[in-house]
């Protein structure tokens, strides 16, 4: 590609001038958000190398680690999501993008096991095909922050089987199991039958597992059920409910647990068993989810961004709700 007349002369680059020069050549980029992201990325990466006096061996080890993440990844194995999760970056990005006003349901990590092939089931159906699982009845509502029911919400629900594996982790998977999609009724209700969640290790037979080992960290997630709520005009809510008392409740390998998402299980009594057609004594989980509108979320996200940038003393403005340098 021929270089334009404005291309900076890149010669005799040193520890001290490599950063501004890299940023100068990248500044030819016409997309101001990409230009800003690259400028900050290069600056932080270079500072990291200078600050840690990064050795060539360490740098190569890091590159080989990333190659390993790519090599083990497939349609059903997302090692880079896992890496982002164990670095706390997934939770951070989700929290920035989906701020929650008080009394709304907090978000949690999506993880790599959501699929798009879950069957849409009628309210009240069972999504489990695991005879070893302990039966669980979940009775839920979806409301807005004023307590008004939200009807017609598409809810993805997924969990592991009783062995702690998602269906996609079984190489002989024929069809989706332990997952479904439901639509909330006119009163914002939905209920379904699943199994009592169990704690399970995140995939740890790859580079991320080895890294956790080197860091002297365990690879377990506390027992949970995943939920994803979607409806036009409402902020997408990706969350999970965590079972109180799980041994990993306060040490989740991917930082997903929030106090407001920790729930208690009860037992189904005779009347409920009859009404919901489930065995008396099964596990019972009742939960009310609270959604926030897209508009309210956007306003809160903008406000948080302006406050955070001010605190950092940065001269930025929001364009399409994202910061770029304010050069005007
Ligand atoms: C999960 O809960 O499905 C999960 C989340 C992050 C990493 C691995 C698994
Ligand atoms: Fe999970």
In short:
Helix content is 30%, strand content 20%. It has 8 helices and 13 strands. Strands 3-2-7-8-9 form a 5-stranded mixed beta sheet, with no helix packed on it. It has a 4-stranded mixed beta sheet with strand order 4-1-11-10, with no helix packed on it.
Please describe the topology of this protein:
Elements: H1 18-26, H2 32-52, H3 56-72, H4 79-86, H5 89-97, E1 135-143, E2 154-158, E3 179-183, E4 189-195, E5 200-201, H6 207-214, E6 220-221, E7 224-230, E8 237-243, E9 262-263, E10 266-267, H7 270-276, E11 283-290, H8 294-311, E12 316-319, E13 322-325
Parallel strand pairs: 1-11, 8-9
Antiparallel strand pairs: 1-4, 2-3, 2-7, 5-6, 7-8, 10-11, 12-13
Helix pairs in contact: 1-2
Residues 111, 113, 221, 224, 226 line the site of fe (iii) ion.
Record field, number of beta strands: 13
What class would the helix/strand composition place it in? alpha+beta
How can the largest sheet be summarized? 5 strands, mixed
Q: What ligands does this structure carry?
A: benzoic acid, fe (iii) ion
The level of helicity is 25-40%
């Amino acid at each position: 590609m021929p270089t334009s007349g404005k291309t900076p002369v890149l010669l005799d680059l040193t520890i001290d001038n490599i950063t501004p020069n890299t940023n100068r050549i990248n500044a030819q980029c016409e997309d101001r958000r990409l230009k800003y992201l690259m400028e900050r990325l290069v600056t932080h990466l270079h500072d990291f190398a200078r600050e840690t006096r990064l050795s060539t061996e360490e740098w190569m080890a890091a590159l080989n680690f990333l190659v390993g993440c790519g090599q083990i990844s497939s349609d059903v194995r997302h090692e880079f999501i896992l890496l982002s999760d164990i670095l706390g970056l997934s939770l951070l990005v989700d929290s920035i993008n989906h701020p929650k006003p008080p009394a709304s349901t907090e978000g949690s990590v999506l993880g790599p096991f959501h699929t798009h092939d879950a069957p849409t089931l009628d309210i009240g159906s069972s999504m489990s095909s695991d005879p070893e699982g302990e039966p669980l009845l979940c009775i839920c509502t979806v409301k807005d922050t004023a307590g008004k029911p939200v009807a017609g919400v598409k809810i993805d629900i997924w969990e592991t089987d009783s062995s702690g594996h998602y269906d996609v982790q079984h190489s002989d998977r024929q069809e989706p199991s332990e997952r479904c999609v439901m639509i909330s009724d006119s009163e914002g209700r939905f209920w379904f039958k699943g199994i009592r969640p169990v704690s399970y290790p995140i995939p740890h037979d790859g580079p991320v597992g080895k890294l956790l080992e080197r860091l002297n960290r365990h690879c377990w997630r506390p027992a949970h059920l995943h939920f994803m709520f979607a409806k036009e005009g409402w902020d997408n809510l990706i969350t999970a409910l965590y079972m109180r008392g799980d041994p990993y409740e306060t040490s989740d390998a991917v930082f997903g647990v929030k106090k407001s998402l920790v729930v208690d299980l009860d037992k189904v009594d005779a009347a409920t068993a009859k009404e919901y057609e489930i065995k008396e004594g099964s596990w019972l989980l009742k939960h009310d989810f609270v959604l926030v509108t897209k508009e309210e979320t956007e306003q809160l996200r903008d406000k948080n961004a302006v406050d955070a940038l001010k605190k950092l003393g940065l001269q930025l403005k929001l364009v399409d709700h994202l910061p770029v340098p304010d050069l005007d």
